[in-house]
Amino acid sequence: MATLATKIQNIEATGSEAPIGAARLSAYQLRALPNEDIFFYVKRIDNSRLVREPDPKAKAECWSAIGAVCAIAGVLITALVPGVAGITAGYQIQGLKQERQRLLDERRGLEVQEASLRGRKRLELVAKDQNMDKPKPEQIVHLNTRTGEDTEAASLSSPKKDQ
Predict the structure, then answer these.
(1) Cα–Cα distance between 144 and 156 in angstroms, integer?
(2) Do residues 121 and 109 touch, judged by C-beta distance below 8 A?
(3) CA-to-CA distance for 135 and 132, rounded, in angstroms?
(4) Which residues contact 41 (CB under 8 A, 6 or more apart)?
(5) Cα–Cα–Cα angle for 92, 95, 99, nearest 5°?
(6) What angle do CA 152, 155, 156 make, to 5 degrees?
(7) For 14-67, what is each residue's pLDDT tens digit?
(8) What is the DSSP string of the chain?
(9) Is 127 in contact with 138 (CB distance < 8 Å)?
(10) Model's pTM, two decimal places?
């Protein structure tokens, strides 16, 4: 009712319900937008001093999650270790087979080299380079003779029966 009283006073003062010239002021003026007269103010809120209250269940949930992850990791490691060990053992065996083959090839090469170094022609060349010719008949000494010419040399090589 209070609003009605003010409206009646306005009508009495002007003589009409709405001002006549207001509608005729501008024929090209836009209508008012809905809620145009409402203003929103933003108030800054500082929450930097607030501390979140600790959740008593969060600590238990965290430890249970850590335990579950550790258990899953243990199961996975237990399941995967034998396979990985088998693979690495296979690599080691293959490496040892290759090393064995390399050593056998090297051994064959050394045997061929030894045979060439021990060959008759090679020994004759080395003897000739070092002035080792065939001995002359007067250079040969027979240690085990039955004739008695070299009795001293023969007695040194045979054990004494007197003692």
Answers:
(1) 10
(2) no
(3) 8
(4) none
(5) 135
(6) 90
(7) 555 555 555 555 677 777 888 888 888 889 999 889 998 888 899 899 999 999
(8) -HHHHHHHHHHHHHSSSS-HHHHHS-TTPPPPPTTTT----------TT--PPPPHHHHHHHHHHHHHHHHHHHHHHHHHHHHHHHHHHHHHHHHHHHHHHHHHHHHHHHHHHHHHHSSHHHHHHHHHHTT--PPPGGG---SS-SSSTTHHHHHHHS--S--
(9) no
(10) 0.39
Residue 26: predicted pLDDT: 67
Cα distances (angstroms) measured from residue 64 to each of 59, 67, 160? 9, 5, 96
Q: Which residue has the tokens 């050394």?
A: 110
Q: What is the pLDDT of residues 67-82, one digit of tens each?
A: 999 999 999 999 999 9
